[in-house]
Design goal:
This protein is an alpha/beta fold. The protein folds into 2 domains: 2-203, Dipeptide transport protein (Rossmann fold), CATH 3.40.50; 216-269, Ribosomal Protein S8, Chain: A, domain 1 (2-Layer Sandwich), CATH 3.30.1370. Helix content is 32%, strand content 25%. The chain has helices at 18-21, 28-48, 134-145, 156-165, 188-203, 225-231, 251-269, and strands spanning 2-7, 53-58, 75-78, 97-103, 122-127, 130-132, 149-155, 170-179, 182-185, 216-222, 238-241, 244-249. The strands form 2 sheets. A 7-stranded mixed sheet has the order 3-2-1-4-7-8-9, with helices on both faces. Helix 2 (28-48) runs parallel beside helix 5 (188-203) and helix 6 packs across helix 7 (251-269). The N and C termini lie far apart (39 Å). InterPro entries: DppA_N, Peptidase_M55, Peptidase_M55_sf.
């Protein structure tokens, strides 16, 4: 069994603030360690379930957060950016399951460090007219590969968002949101043990995905009309209004193109930290 892990940071055990997840924040180095240990818990759970190979993609911010010398040596690691497929770089149909570790809720909801990909720059995302964030897009793209998303860890808001997309996905809430930068924490050892055991259980009960066939529609509403204007230079991108662009295509094409959108936005705005 081949298992793929996409590791974000805002939903990691113990972190609640930008200082925990963004360099050079005063607690960023501690956050990196917590992130690595959450991933290690998932890796241990995967091997306990019979995994023969685990690949981890560092999917947060600079994508250089995980500590390679402290990562479980049985896991491969993709580190750095840019990556054409961003948070799902390296995933192929050869994998049997996906684990999302440390994920967060979408922009506009009251979750810990909630946002969609770029902090203030993205106000809303719709997939086939259903509002979404990183969780929904990742789930849809993994399904397009034919790979089931088995597990997601994060705060309770992120877990609820995942369950709304797919009730079959196992979730582990490692903290309970009190506000965007405050949470009631699950003790670290308890949270990481839960990640490990739930991973093992989830991989023993995989549900094959049933992705929609045919063309899908992705719409993104930006904070800046300038970003939407620049994106219309990409063939197939149209403007629904001054700040909202739309693109139709197959799901994997849309996910790849969305990552291009992010690079264009970064160049146009030099966006500040999302806090």
């Amino acid at each position: 069994m081949k298992v793929y892990v996409s590791a974000d940071m805002e939903g990691v055990t113990g972190v609640v603030d930008a200082e925990d997840v963004q360099p050079p924040g005063r607690d960023y180095e501690r956050g990196r360690l917590l992130m690595t240990e959450d991933v290690n818990a998932a890796v241990r759970g995967a091997y306990a379930a019979g995994a023969t190979e685990v690949l981890v993609n560092d999917a947060h911010g600079p994508m250089r957060n995980l500590l390679p010398d402290l990562l479980d040596p049985r896991a491969g690691l993709i580190k750095g950016r840019p990556k054409p497929m961003g948070m799902m770089e390296g995933l192929t149909p050869e994998y049997d399951a996906v684990l999302c570790v440390g994920y967060h809720a979408r922009a506009g909801v009251l979750g810990v460090l909630s946002h969609s990909f770029m902090g203030h720059e993205i106000e809303d995302i719709w997939l086939d007219d259903q509002v979404t964030g990183e969780i929904g897009l990742f789930h849809a793209a993994a399904a397009a590969y034919g790979v089931p998303l088995a597990l997601l860890t994060g705060d309770d808001t992120a877990c609820d968002e995942m369950k709304a997309w797919d009730p079959a996905v196992a979730t582990v809430p490692v903290k309970f949101a009190k506000d965007r930068f405050a949470a009631q924490l699950v003790p670290v050892a308890e949270a990481q043990q839960s990640i490990e055991t739930t991973t093992t259980e989830a991989l023993a009960n995989l549900t094959p995905p049933s992705p929609p066939t045919g063309s899908r529609s992705l719409s993104v509403r930006w904070q800046s009309a300038s970003v939407a204007s620049h994106l219309t230079a990409i063939p197939g991108v149209t403007r629904r209004d001054d700040r909202t662009v739309t693109l139709d295509g197959d799901m994997l094409q849309l996910y790849r193109m969305f990552n291009l959108f992010l690079r264009v936005c970064s160049a146009v705005t030099s966006n500040p930290p999302y806090c």
